[in-house]
Amino acid sequence: MSKPDSDKQERGQLQHEAEHEKPDKRNPVLFYLMILFAAAFLLLLMSFLMQRRANQEAINNLQETSNSASQSLQNTIEQNEELSKQVADLEQAFSENQQTIRDQENQLEDLEEQVADLTKSSQAMDWFWQINEAYVRGRYSQARSLIQEMGEELPEYLPRESVTDNDRFSPYDRYQEIYDALY
Fold first, then answer.
1. What percentage of the chain has pLDDT greater than the value 90?
2. Are the C-beta atoms of 158 and 124 separated by less than 8 Å?
């Protein structure tokens, strides 16, 4: 046999062995696919964990906001109740002040009536003094004219009791005595 035949035969055998030989190494494509799946899985896991942490923070923030709003609402309710109580107290104080004002106005009216009565009583006493003086001096016509000028209203304001304990007439009784004597 010649050498070229033996080369051919050798090459054929090598090729046959290479085709039927099982590689000892794993297929590199499968290895790369496994690495890619593992990387994708790790990225998905990291994304999930990050999303979970972000959601937890958002939930915590919402809970804090809710707690803060709840506390703010509670504070507002307490302030509202306190203000309502203050309003009620002020309304009661206002009502009491209004009653005090009405009482003082009534007292003022009573005092004004007393002042008017005392003024009229003072005027009546002045007229009485002049009438009594004219009567005692015997000036009866002057006494009559003074009685007419005095009018019918003022004699009612003369004191009906004597302040002196001398068993004499009160100014009103003395006026009636003079009036009866002259008319």
1. 59
2. yes
